Known about the structure:
8 strands; four-stranded mixed β-sheet
Amino acid sequence: MPRRKKEPGRKGSKTPLRWFDRFGPRSPDPAECPDCGSGSILRICYGLPGREMKEKGRRGEIVLGGCMVRTPRWYCKNCLHRWPEDPPPEALNGIPEWQEKHVAEKVAEFAALTAEAAEKPPPDEPVVENYWERRDGRKVFVVRFPWGKMRLEKRSHLVPLGGTAVYEVIMGFPPFGVDYSRSHHLAQLAAVRFEHRPPA
Ligand SMILES: [Zn+2]
C-alpha cells in the first residue's frame, strides 16, 4: 500500500501549517466599511501576538483580536463596526422564568432611561456624533466622549416577548480610571435623548 503523503501541519510533517491551509485564501482588504462607508479600516489579527504584531497593534496599524479566532476580520475606526459579524440572537434562551425576569429588567431599564432623558443632561453626557438605521432594523449611535467613542445599537428583539427596545453597547472601552458602567449608562442616555430631540 502506498504511504500517504503527510498533510501540512500534521505531526511529523516538515511543511508548517500556513494561514490559508486553515482559513482559506486571504480575501483582499475591503475599500470601505459596509456600515458607514468610511475608508478607515483595520485588519483584525488573531492569535498570540509576536513582537512585530504587538508593535503594529501599538501603532494602530492592526487590531489585536485576542487568541480565540472569531468571525470579524475587519474593524472600522470611524463607527467601531467589526465584520463579517455573527448576527445577534433574535430570541432568548434559558428557562421561561429567567426570560421573563430579563424582559422585566429591560423594561424597567428602558423606563428609567426615558425618564432620565426628559431631565436636564448631566454635565459629562457625551454627544451622538453619528446615527443611522441599518437595513436589518438596528439603529446605530456613535457616541463621542472626551476619551473616545462608543458604538451603541438599538435592537427590538424583545418587543415580541412583551419587552421594549434595548440599547446595547457594542464597542468602545473607556481608558483605565474611567468608570465603565457610568460611561455605558451615559452613552445610552445620550442615545435616548437624541431620539427624543425636537424635530429640526
Ligand atoms: Zn464604519
